[in-house]
Write a structure and sequence with these properties.
The strands form two sheets. Strands 1, 2, 3, 4, 5, 6, 7, 10, 11, 12 and 13 form an eleven-stranded antiparallel β-sheet that branches. A three-stranded antiparallel β-sheet has the order 9-8-14. Strand 8 and strand 9 (135-136) form a beta hairpin. The radius of gyration is 22 Å and the shape is elongated. It has helices at residues 18-25, 69-74, 84-98, 122-127, 164-168, 200-215, 230-240, 250-267, 272-287; strands at 3-4, 8-16, 33-37, 42-50, 53-58, 62-68, 106-117, 129-132, 135-136, 138-139, 148-153, 157-163, 174-181, 217-219. The longest helix has 18 residues, at 250-267. By secondary structure, it is of the alpha+beta class.
Length: 289
């Protein structure tokens, strides 16, 4: 099994710089649309798109840039490897083409994750996802062809898992596992700027965040249930039936999650959890170079 593509992708940054606003407005690569407040016809902002990035300029001398660094690097697609060296080149290119200083571009949102090529069907795995922190997964909207699940936690961050191979018509079983940071406090790293993305310590922290997401995710899989003891059958049935969860105390959730994971480890036929954890950990370490 192999996996590809780490780590950072979607970003949103904000910059307060009057000179940068003018520089961007006069950049030949950007064709801006003007937006007005209709009652007064006052211009409120200018927007433009380029290479997977969206630029918005405000009258308050503020610039926001959001989109995919990986698509910007590749001029549109994002299903190959995106290593630390490619990230550094991307930030230099952003500076050269648009005058954006990574040291002053403050991160407001961040998406990071990996694609992993699995020996099992991504769709079968997605169907067996039970919950994240005992919150059920919802269907995810995927552009084009695709299938995925997501779970958001208190509108601060979310876990997104989807069939990347299906989305891009890839020949391999390619599963995308991603964390979307909506409020930066959820990353527990203080104020961050684009330049911080090249810091190996942040890279390692994000790898740990992905692993922690998986640790809190309950994953079912085909099992040899005929070998269950009565107690194992009771616990298994209780966990896969979501209507039971409302009656679980915090202690019971912890005990049942541990017992359920052990049951899947003992009787499961796919080894989902161990395989995914190994793939995520290995690729994160490889692409740090």
């Amino acid at each position: 099994m192999q996996c590809s593509r780490l780590m950072y992708d979607g970003i949103k940054v904000s910059i307060r710089d009057e000179a940068l606003v003018e520089k961007l407005r006069n950049n030949d690569l950007l064709k801006f649309n003007q937006h007005c407040y209709i009652p007064t016809a006052e211009v409120t902002s200018y927007t433009s798109k380029y290479g997977g990035l969206n630029f918005e300029l405000f009258s308050s001398s503020r610039v926001t840039i959001n989109g995919s660094l990986h698509k910007y690097y590749n001029n549109g697609n994002n299903h190959d490897d995106f290593s630390m060296q490619k990230l550094k080149y991307t930030l230099m290119r952003l500076s050269d083409e648009f005058g954006v200083d990574p040291n002053t571009a403050r991160l407001n949102n961040l998406e990071f994750g990996v694609n992993i090529n699995t020996s099992f069907s991504p769709n079968a795995f997605l169907n067996d996802l039970q919950s994240y922190k005992w919150q059920p997964f919802n269907m995810m909207s995927v552009k084009g062809k695709g299938y995925g699940k997501e779970c958001f936690h208190f509108r601060q961050y979310g876990l997104k898992i989807y069939n990347k191979g299906l989305q891009y018509g890839l020949p391999k079983n390619t599963l995308r596992i991603e964390k979307k940071i909506i409020t930066m406090c959820a990353l527990k790293r203080g104020h961050l700027y684009l330049s911080d993305l090249t810091n190996p310590e942040l890279w390692t922290h994000c790898k740990d965040e992905l692993i922690e997401l998986l640790d809190h995710t309950i994953i079912n899989e085909p099992v040899n249930s005929k070998e269950f003891t009565k107690n194992e059958q009771r616990i298994y049935n209780a966990v896969i039936n979501q209507s039971n969860w409302v009656n679980f105390t915090r202690d019971k959730k912890a005990r049942y999650k541990k017992s359920f994971n052990q049951i899947i480890s003992d009787y499961g036929t796919q080894n989902y959890r161990a395989s995914i954890l190994d793939l995520v950990t290995t690729k994160c370490d490889e692409l740090l170079v």
